[in-house]
Sequence to fold (69 residues):
Amino acid sequence: MEAFQDDYESVTEEPNQYIKDLVVRTFVPLAKNFVEIDQEQEVENYNNYLSFFISLHRKIFVKIAKTFD
Fold:
């Protein structure tokens, strides 16, 4: 688990604890009782990420679409 944490920190210019935890949980599934996950916070974080992702791609789409005008 520490290897994934170290790897994330070494390749990221602006480390974020939430993203680091997400990366670790993705590649190293934890036992249910090993870590306590705040489900409401996870949903809020996911929704924020999704909004950011959609907004970013919308901007890129508009930029690309304008090049075809």
Remarks:
- The mean pLDDT is 81.
